[in-house]
Each structure stands twice: as structure tokens, then as C-alpha cells.
Amino acid sequence: MKKLLLLAAGCMSYFTFAQGLHIQNLSPYNIEFTIWKSNLGSPTTGCNPGIESKLFVGTVPILPASPNPGITAVEAYYDGNVNFSNTFNAAYPSTPLIDGWMFNGNHYNLGANPPQQIPVVFSSVTTWTGMKFSTSLPGGGTAGGYTLNLGCGTNPSTVNVSSPNPSTPFNGTLFTFGGDTWIVLY
Question: For residues 69 and 60, which has the higher predicted lDDT (pLDDT)?
């Protein structure tokens, strides 16, 4: 009986707190992006509260192009608690650091001393739900701009994107699996 309770508690904590965001770039393009979290359990409020990445230093996070497009992914990972987004993760060394977030109209600076952190409760009631991004060639030049998101209420989901330009082929997909959100760009 004790083992069943431990197993149930483990599964509940996994699905409750395993809310990471995995971004895999298999494309030949650099990915310049903004990511956000929403409260999908509250569609009548527009899925608020919402939390969106906003850098204090630099422009936008950039995930580098794949060194071997279609075969080798450059990966980024963000924990469900956005306050960890400004901390280097050795398991995902390509993850661009995010030092600021917008929440309820306020800008939080994680790079300040002491850091201006978003209350953890808001990270736990929100889910990774979207990414706005543009693609650029490693040598320069933009290939296009896209949005992937899980819909809220009457707003539709956009879980697949494709480049309309055949000279710059690009695809992306967003899905959830195992309590985490995955964005794969190829």
C-alpha cells in the first residue's frame, strides 16, 4: 500500500511540476524568439495571468542554427519556474539566458541585485503556451517570422508552421508530452 501511495505521489508531482519548455532547432537558421506562459485553466480571463520574456540586456534570445540541419538539434530548456531562466544549465549549454519577464504589466529584472523575481505561485499556475520567433541565416538576412501557440478560449491554436517561401524551407511544431511543452523547428 505504501508503494502505491509513493507511486501515485510521484506521478502527481511529475505532472504537476514538470512543466518545462524544450526547444529543438534542427533548421539551418538562427532562431530569435520570445516565449510566454499562460493560465490555460482560465479561458474566461483570457488565460491570465500571462508571463512573457523581455530581456533587460540585449535584444532577444537567439538559439543558434543546427550544425548539421535535419540531423543534429541545438537544444534549449526552460524550467517551469521562470526565475531560473537567467541561470546557466550545463545539461543544455545552448539555452539562451533570459534576464527579464513581463507579468501583469510589470517588468521583472532577474539580473538585478537582488533579483526581482516573479512569485513562484504564478509560475506554477501557468503553462508554457507559445513562442513568437523569426529565423535568420547564420551569415545574415532574415528568412521569416512565425508564431506557435496553444490557443486560449476562442483563440485558435497554431501548432504547426511552414515557410511559404520555397527558397527558405522551414517548418515547426508545438506539442505537449509528459507534462512539458516541446517546440521542434526543422
Answer: 69
If residue 128 lies in a helix (H) or strand (E), which one and from where to where? strand 127-136
Computed on alpha carbons and rounded to an integer, the radius of gyration of the chain in Å comes to 17
Query: Distance between CA 146 and CA 58 in Å, rounded?
Result: 21
Residue listed under C-alpha cell 538562427: 30
pLDDT at 34: 95
Judged by DSSP in three states, 109 sits in strand
E strand residue ranges, 21-121: 21-25, 30-38, 51-53, 62-63, 74-78, 100-103, 106-109
Residues 53, 21: Cα–Cα separation, whole Å: 13
Q: Quote the pLDDT of residue 186.
A: 93
